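Hi everyone, sorry if this is the wrong subforum. Our group has a chain we'd like a structural model of before ordering constructs, and none of us has done structure prediction before. Sequence below.
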Amino acid sequence: MTIAFDHTYARDLPGTYLRVPPDAAPAPKLLVLNQPLARDLGLTLTEAEAEAWFSGAALPPGADPIAQAYAGHQFGGFSPQLGDGRAHLLGEITAPGGRRFDVQLKGSGKTPFSRGGDGKAVIGPMLREYLISEAMAALGVPTTRSLAVVATGETVWRETPLPGAVLTRVAASHLRVGTFQFFAARGDQAQVRALADYAIARHYPDLAGADNPYLAFLDAVIAAQARLIAQWMGLGFIHGVMNTDNMAISGETIDYGPCAFMEGYAPGTVFSSIDHQGRYAYANQPLILAWNLARLAETLLPFLDPDQNKAVEIANDRLTGIAARYRTEWTAVMRRKLGLIGEDPEDATLADDLLTAMEGADWTLTFRRLADPATLRPLFDDFRAMEAWLPRWKARAGEGAAQRIAKANPAVIPRNHKVEEALTAATNGDMAPFHALLAAIQDPFTEAEAFMLPAPTSFGQYVTFCGT
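Answer:
Right subforum, don't worry. Here is the predicted structure as tokens:
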């Protein structure tokens, strides 16, 4: 088949990217192709086409690969030039429903933004992104998607030699807070305005007629990101690297590097091997949400008001409101998880008190087993606080809570030991555990006992890596 690529980003935003072809994979082998996603995108792909086009071995007709420029605050420190160091945007496609999506190769070779890296990726991290992003999609969380992973036939050197791979990522766009920072840091207000106009047209077209579309754009991104991070928190999901270059303007989860789902509830949980200070710990994610959005607001100041002092005042007003907006979104998430109907002023306190009572207990199983509270006790070392909380919840939840809880709380998440088991097997040539886990997480509200239990104690403390 042919893919009807368009290239609005390249056409409308000259100076925001560099044209560069992906490396040609010497011996591509298709590992997984997301046929349901392909159908949603209006693509009918053969395995041979996917193997060639999504490995860099051959460009699909109409592709015009580019590497996008962006900057970013990484662990709080500003890097004025990052950019796609191992990714190539092939182009955009319009799905049958009319939505536009980027199609990007990741791990596809060096670009001028590679910063000394080899531009490559390996099988484990690429399959990891496929698994976690597809789990998030099945759980109803806005996310980039994974269309394919192809082994390249190359050996890639990290601490040890590993088999190379390329991921094909599908995203509403790859516009990031860091994209705006790249040009704001250079004083290029015209390019920042052009980016904002493009982002409004692509993601928030209803804002074009607003009195101040740039302020409305800031409001829309704040709303989308507050809703997204509340959904993460409801699932015990820890992104692990919430740098500003990993915050998408669209409100999608992007860049699944050192991410993981928390098992035993502990607010300070960190999985990333490089997050030594806990900047991106579970409980800090709402704080980093506000911090990152402040960086976006800084880039938009010239367009909020001609008077700089007034512009700062407007921006600060919006930023001050983020905590309350997030709290509202989080409370809505917790109401659903607790099976509550309607709104009560004490709902947030009820949820807060549950978290105090359940510290150390398995996050996913605790919420799931609220459908049958008699099954909760084995999850707790000390059940007294939970036992005191349950009557308050039962009085508020009322009839039918069990059914609502089962629909709102997954039975299956990508548990860390199962992810590692699948990735280790795949790296060694056995894809069966990967496909079994994938099938389970794509149907997360159906109980599958083999994938529901926490890691055995022998698994030890879990540590994740950026995968670069």
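For your construct planning: The first strand starts at residue 17 and ends at 19. The radius of gyration is 22 Å.
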